[in-house]
Amino acid sequence: MAVTTADLPQFARVVVIGGGVGGTSVALHLAEMGERDVLLVERSELTSGSTFHSAGLVGQLRADPTLTRMNMYSVELYRRLQDTENPVGWRECGGIKLASSPERLEEIRRQISWARSFGLPLHEISPAEVAERFPLVDLDGVVGAAYLESDGHLDPAQLCYTLATAARALGVQVRQHTRVTGISTRHGRVTQVRTDRGDVDCEVVVNCAGMFAAEIGRLVGVRIPLVPMSHQYVITEPFRVPGEPSLPTLRDPDLLVYFRQDVDGLLMGGYERDPAAWTAARVAFDAIPSDFNGRLLSQDWPRFEDIAANAQRRVPVMANVGVRRLINGPEAFTPDNEFCLGETELGGFFVAAGFCAHGIAGAGGIGKVMAEWIIEGEPSMDVSHMDIARFGRQYRSPGYTLARTVENYRTYYDIPYPDRQRRAARPLRRSPVYTWHAEHGAVFGEKAGWERVDWYESNADGAAAAPHGWPSRYWSSAVGAEHLATRAGVGLFDESSFAKIEVSGADAAAFLDWVCDNEVARAVGDVTYTQALNDRGGIESDFTVTRIENDTFLIVTGTAFGSHDISWLRRQARRHGFDVRIADVTGATCCYALWGPQSREILQPLTPSDLRSEHFPYMTAQELTVGDVPVRALRVTFVGELGWELYASSEYGVTLWESLWEVGHGAGMIAAGYRAIESMRLEKGYRVWGTDITPETTPYEAGLGFCVKLDKPGGFVGRDALRAAREAGPTRRLRAIVLTDRRRLVLGNEPVRVDGEVVGRVTSGGYGHSVAASIAYAYVPFDAKPGTAVEVDLFGDWVPGEVVNEPLFDPSGTRVRGA
Q: Please, which residues have CB within 8 angstroms of residue 607's CB and are 6 or more apart in sequence?
């Protein structure tokens, strides 16, 4: 594409910053959705960031369903573009993923099973079939493989040019050699992009600046946590006979390497265990040179030696062929290996960056969801795990971001076992009684930077038999002991990590009634369980709301969802002009839950307040004292037992815990962790956002219709969509399933079939110790009522099960309400 030197327009509704595959894809999809007033600016020339040196592999299957669907859409787009006047060099040659260990073969079989739920024809092939398709391979140590015939590769630069050409044909303006120098804002929104060639007024800015995205974000005080990482691959001299059948792409994650054909040679790269970040440092943000355009980093052969040795082991010819070039190019990685997408805390300032070296595979899907987000206000897929709002304030630290990102790169090809724990930059966020937990045998898991007790190994009794397979890798009999002790007596849980959001101001009640499907602006002291919906009726958030004063409310949500929920609430307030203050008060308060049939007997001696149900009803809150500590007590539960959550200012945290422990320990109370909570909530059918309920599921489908108040005065976000959905009738429903083999546990995303046909996939599951059952939840056709026989695919085995009534434990709810 020729350099465009025309003057900049004075106004463009949308300005896209960055001329790589991300920016050009976003521009094209905006235009295809009808938004033609789009200007794309590029500091140098198109492709001159990371796109020009990308390896170009397109593999569709990923570790999460949404990204897989995005990549599948990308393949559809690339096929379409290949048939235009500007083909993208798409080669649908198929893709092989090797298993060089029994553990990797288990992962492959798990991926094959859940790929079925998307209609993705991934299937297992034998080592001999690998050799037939990729004759250069040495099969030493290979125990199996997966093959997907619709995978392939393309020319990244040509893709970028084709996307830009298609966008320009629909009216998008493209200006190269236009460097952004500033962004103006007013009243919390972007208003103008300033460049070295002039200023452009605008309503929306989309930061698609790749490895420069963090720098662009800093122009407006927005932190975009990504790190440019050095990524290397080699291109060999031609050595294959011209006209030989094309080779499929080949990945051997156990050896950390990948291959694809490059003309009549090979391209080979990998993810080394000693990665190198570029320009970022522990106490300094990335500082990419201003003239780093269309350039590469210096070759680093010593760091590539292990990758080269592994490549020669798997493809021996690599030891003898000439190397035409070693490419060392910076790629922007995020701390969790997920894309960084969505609207930031600054109104109208969007980001699509941090593609983690698989942006070519995802570029089509990225453009699609971003265009939907900008034009319609929300994407059609659940991309909450890619939303920039997921990153908490700790990612403002360059050191924390760097440590997590480097660890992520180092473990890029590791098997994603359930509950796999990150190790970098820990511990960071700690409860007031963290030391007490450690001294009493706590096994900590990390979430959102918090150190959380999963269980206390000191509670292990050896009574429960370990489950089969992967679930046994992070397991202890202590979980069952804590579960059963809570059900029989009382358990004490540290829930200080739960995110707490205070909403206050003149419009607080009206605002929350508008964003919630339930009635939450009730009497002071009332606690309401509710969802917040998007315009399609999908569940954007799931939390409790407590009215603590006439104009002040407390929201309690999951540990990992606080940043997301705060961002979403603030965006709604900004969009609709509500006069509210939305503050994160998580760290200001500790929270301890006391649950179990004997919880009242433990708590009552510590407070002068009457805890009987007639004085302290279920789903209400009161201010009281526990020992010498002032607390806000909420009579709620997430385990299906009588009890309270006790909130206190953090400086009282140690005293409050010690007061509870002193009274309860001698009376049979047990300190317990989050894994016991998970087991008990499964028995009660309590939903978890992000798995059981998502922006793609409605309350009616999830069995949460009791929260929906369609006739609430003033309505609420998503009401019209829910009303239409109710009138149309549900087509699917989240159901509880019990497997016949109680030692076979689901992990999530497994396909479910009825009468031999795949009808849905598992959302969550585990073992219910009180009901002695392997429990799974899955969306299945609405007519799959209790009693329906089903099968769930666990690592290639179809395990029988049955849809059952829920909840499995205490269906009358008498234990929750107490006496």
A: 624, 625, 626
The closest alpha carbon to 46, from 66, 80, 19, belongs to 19
- 721, burial (CB in 10 Å: exposed 0-12, middle 13-18, buried 19+): middle
User: CB of 660 within 8 A of CB of 626?
Assistant: yes
Q: Is 742 in contact with 772 (CB distance < 8 Å)?
A: yes
φ, ψ of residue 438 to 5 degrees: the values are -60, -40
Q: DSSP characters for 667-715?
A: GT-EEE-HHHHHHHHHHHT---BTTTB-TTS-HHHHT-GGG--TT-TT-
**CA separation (Å) from 165 to 35, 87, 175, 337, 515?**
16, 11, 12, 30, 41
Q: Following CA atoms 212, 218, 223, 224 in sequence, which dihedral angle do they give, to the nearest 10 degrees?
A: -10
Using alpha carbons only, what angle is made at residue 163 by residues 159 and 164, rounded to the nearest 5 degrees? Answer: 120
d(CA 411, CA 405): 10
Contact 167, 28 (CB under 8 A): yes
Per-residue pLDDT of 394-437, as tens digits, reads 999 999 999 999 999 999 999 999 888 999 999 999 999 999 99
Dihedral angle of Cα 601, 603, 606, 608, to the nearest 10 degrees: -90
Write out the H or E segment, with its range, that includes residue 797: strand 797-804
Over residues 568-583, the pLDDT tens digits come to: 999 999 999 999 999 9
Are the C-beta atoms of 579 and 506 separated by less than 8 Å? yes
Quickly count: other Cβ atoms within 10 Å of residue 720's Cβ: 14
Identify each DSSP E strand in 427-538 by its residue range: 442-447, 450-456, 491-494, 499-504, 527-533
CB 1 within 8 A of CB 165: yes
Q: Is residue 117's pLDDT more than 90?
A: no
Summarised one tens digit per residue, pLDDT across range 55-107 is: 999 999 887 889 999 999 999 999 999 999 999 999 999 999 999 999 999 99
Q: What is the mean pLDDT of residues 660-682?
A: 97
Q: Would you name the residues annotated as active-site residues?
A: 231, 258, 542
How far is Cα 60 from Cα 44, in angstroms, rounded to an integer? 31
d(CA 744, CA 797): 10
Contact in structure between 240 and 260 (CB atoms under 8 Å): no
Q: What is the pLDDT of residue 1?
A: 44
User: Is the distance from CB of 736 to CB of 752 less than 8 angstroms?
Assistant: no
For β-strands 442-447 and 450-456, DSSP reports them as antiparallel
pTM, entire model: 0.96
**For residues 306 and 685, what is the distance between their CA atoms, to the nearest angstrom?**
49
What is the distance, to the nearest Å, from the Cα of residue 473 to the centroid of all Cα atoms in its chain? 22
